[in-house]
Structures are given as C-alpha cells and as structure tokens.
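Objective 1b: paired records.
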Amino acid sequence: MKLHSYYRSSASFRVRIALNLKGLAYDYVPVHLNRGDHQKPPFADLSVDTLVPLLETDGERLSQSMAIIEYLDEAHPSPPLLPGDALGRAKVRALAQSVACEIHPLNNLRVLKHLVRELKIDEAAKNGWYHHWCRTGLQAFERQLAQLPPSLYCYGQTPTLADCCLVPQIFNAQRFEVNLTGLPRTMAAFEACMALPAFAQAQPSACPDNE
C-alpha cells in the first residue's frame, strides 16, 4: 500500500493511525500541501479531488479519510475500529463525524488560506475564527461523551474510529493554542490514545516530511 500524505494533514493523520492500529505496512508518499504540490503532477494525475490522504491498494485508489478507514476496517477486521452492534457503530460514527464533518471542514488549510488571501482577514481574526469553531465543536464532542458510559477511550476500552478522528484534531487545536480546559472526557481519551505506539508513531513529528 501507498499512502499519499502530508504530515500536518489531520485527515492523513487519521489514516496513519488506522494503518498502525491494524499493523499494516505502507509506503509513505509526501505531498506538500502548503506548497500546492497536491494541485500539480504527479499527484494531481492520481487524485481527482487533489486532496490527501490518497491510499493506493490492490491497484485501486481510495480518497476521503473516513471512507479509507472504513475500507481498512472491513478488509482487515482485526482489531475492529467500530463496535460489533449497530447502536454502538452509530454512536462511534456520530463522534467521528462531529470532528470530520463539523470541526475540521471549517478550519482546514484551504479555508484558512481563503480567509487570508481572498477575504483579507488578518492573522488575529483568522486565529479567532479557528479558536471559535474548534472550541465550539470540541465542547459539543464533550457533551456527546458525557452521555456515554465511562470508558478509557472515546467509546469503550479499545480505540475506535472516533479516536482516529479526535487525536489529530487535538493536535491541531494545541498548535493553534485553542483553550482546551473543561473537556475532561475528551482530553482523557486523547491522553489514553497517545500512550499507544500506534498513535504516537502516526503524529506529525514522526512523519518523514515533518518540518
């Protein structure tokens, strides 16, 4: 397998975590988003949406981190990243999508660049945008966790799809110095995950293209 990835891409980070949890070997192919390499050959010839991550496996190309992770979970079911029951799967997907569909799209690199370059937002206003939407989203995430039984990770005693999404978001929040107080369940799950090699070895500082 080949994973086209950018070290700071939280979506790529999610997939790196999942691959590590599954114990799957892969070749890391760096794509520098900040330089715009994703919009130029050779990557633009591979990816129709010119986004990372892109996973090449068995002669196929898979895009979108959530779809990639669910594919990996079906193709390599042990250890599972989704619970065995329908209700549990729905709860884990809801947590994961709270990050992947609610927080991340408002704060990814494309959006932040557009705010600055096209809308002429200054750095302080851009960071204020990030802080507001990230903090608001994580507070909602914490409220979801509060409705669930106590657990080591986001859901249950083993990492799930929800943890694959949460950890990269917390990394980004820390980089932008977002206020993370008052999120006890969220931060406890993050700390539990980071004690595992699968998460620690997927973090940006461990990537070959880390700057």
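Objective 1b, second protein:
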Amino acid sequence: MPYDLKEIAAISGMPGLYRLVKPTRAGVIIEALDAKGTRSVASARNKVSLLQEISIYTQDYDQTVPLSEVFDRIHQQHGATPAVTHKSDDRDLTAFMEGIMPDYDRERVYMSDIKKLVQWYHVVSKALEYQAPAEEVETEQAPAPSDADAPKAAKKKAAKTTDEPAADEAMSTAGIIPAAEETNAAGNPEAADTKPAKKTTKKKAE
C-alpha cells in the first residue's frame, strides 16, 4: 500500500484527519495529522471512519475503487502536491477527478466528495511517506525446478495474488463519506443487498 491508511481516520465533529493511537475506556486517543500532532481523546460517541474502509463509486454499479488506490493514482499523476485544492474552481476539480478516475459515477459522487478527496490527499501526502509498490523480481539464473518439485512450484505461483479489497470492506454511499464505526458492512446499502448464496448439498441415490 503506497500510503498506509490503516490507522488514519476522519472523526465526526472534528476537522482534519487523525492517527488512531490507542483505545481507552472513554473512547480512543487520537493524534492530529498536522505539524503540531496534538493528541486528544475522541469520545465513543464520535463516529470514527477509517480511510482504508472508504471507497468511491464507479459507473459500474457494483464496482468501487478503494481510497488508497485513488490516492496512489493521484501520486502517480500529480506527485505529493497536486495543483488543485479543495478551494479550487468546480470545473478544475471535475477535470482533476476525471483525470485520475475517468469512470467515477457522476451521479453518486458529489462535488463535496471530490473536495474532501483533494483535501484529505494534501493532508496525507504531507504527513505520511509514500511507499512505492513492491515489484517482484524473478531471478533468471535460478535453477529450473525438477519434475519432483514441479507441483510445489505451481502451488507457490498460484498463491501469489494481487492486493484487492475484501468483499466485506465498507463502501461509501455517496462517493466519499465515513463508514460505520468499527464495522465493515454495517450501514452499507451495497453490502446489505449482497448476501452469500446458501450452499445446498444433494445426496446421490445409491
């Protein structure tokens, strides 16, 4: 993950972004993601939304793009400091969004979402270090596996998969909005509508 968003959250009623430090009986200790890094306690009544669990709608109704991937696209095209800010003209922000995510849903992703996306990216890019995705390097000089080792090699190769968001990760309901606290699918219309099919088994007649 280029930007590690696992402990970064937006908290209702509190401006900016915060790093979650540790939970307490009254809530959770948070650290402001700014130059001051002021620590405070977010009450259990505050809605804590992890950025890692937020996604953006695409024109494919069943598909969304994780915020971490959107941030990576922004970094690839614009670096750590994009020319636009959340105060930029709506036309510039729309053009910016179309450049990084041409297939975003124009009806379900609002201008307020795009502004929040840009604002969050500026905060994250200043506070966190960008980690380039690791590239797998194959050694050509490595000896070819023998016939006995072939099944093992095949299994190892099949085990490598690309990092994709889990099916139960929280999805936004209007582009970029906070997900439910400490849940993945709760309060998510998309997740609620999708239920795993029950498996049925049939006994063969002997």
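The two ends are 53 Å apart (CA to CA). Helices lie at 67-78, 90-100, 111-127, 150-159, 189-193.
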